Amino acid sequence: MKAQATLEELAALFGGKVEGDGSLPIRGIASLEEAGEGEITFLAESKNRRRLEKTRASAAIVPANLPSFPKPVIRTPNPYLAYAKVQAFFQQKPLAPRGVDSRAFIGGGVKIGRDVSIYPFVYVGEGCEIGDRAVLHPGVYLGESVQVGEGSLLYPNVVVMDRCVVGKRVILHPGTVIGSDGFAFARDGAKFVKIPQVGIVVIEDDVEIGANCTVDRASMGKTWIKRGIKTDNLVQIGHNVIVGEDTVIVAQVGIAGSTEIGNRVALGGQVGVVGHIKIGDGAMIGAQAGVGQDVAPGQILSGSPAFPHREWLRAQAAFQKLPEMKRTLAELEKRIKALEERITEEKE
Questions:
Q1: Which of 100, 178, 207, 213 could form a Cys-Cys staple with 118, CB 3.0–4.6 A?
Q2: How confident is the model over 57-75, as pLDDT tens digits?
Q3: What is the pTM of this model?
């Protein structure tokens, strides 16, 4: 881990503008409340300026529109992104590869790159390829002919089944399973007959998949997780699903088989997606929505079944008024009934 950097060096990480002493040494980053002398903090929104005024940090990353501040600052349009890059800078560690532990099992014909770390109790099946600087933590299982790209990090108890491909700089968090069988059965009278799942999973570069997720192998061909995708924990991706680049999938999402999800899509927590549909580029699906049909590019949906988000907001507002509306309707029915009875009596 690098001990410190100047304010100018930190600003260069994200293109920020320094105001104050750019040569000020900084040894770490912390929250507004916890930062101390020699550390930098960050303010995500100008409306929280009062919290910034109380900080003991030596400097701060602030929004570009923040009024003048007595301490040295780095101004940026996106303080949260700047925080991510500065935090990553201070957390980086010098490469210290462990090599292959004697308690790991390495099958025949395995190709292992340079500077790897393979911890105790890792199982690497026959014919696997492991790239340079890959890290396999205890309990990782690689089936036969698995490929793991350079710089990838597999945390404890990750399972990658036979022939699946993990790209470069991929992070798989604990308990995640890549390449389990897809859920596919054919009926034979009252019984179910399993459909063999003979495809694979391909995970491209710079993907991060959370803990206890499952990505099923394809029935045929491949389940395809494209570059830059990020998933939260407890996500289920079915067989033959294609997920486009830079898509974000929040916890407990379930995606049924053969669905195609475009680039830069956002799926909120507990979204359910039926199989064999397409969700277009840039679409956003709100939490707990149930998506049962194609979604156009850029569309924003909420609700179950999902429909346009603005209409859903109006529906939610109306839903809260239903008890009052019911009482009003009952009163109107009484008044109409009384009026009808009066008109009948007058005719008679």
A1: 100
A2: 999 999 998 888 899 999 9
A3: 0.86
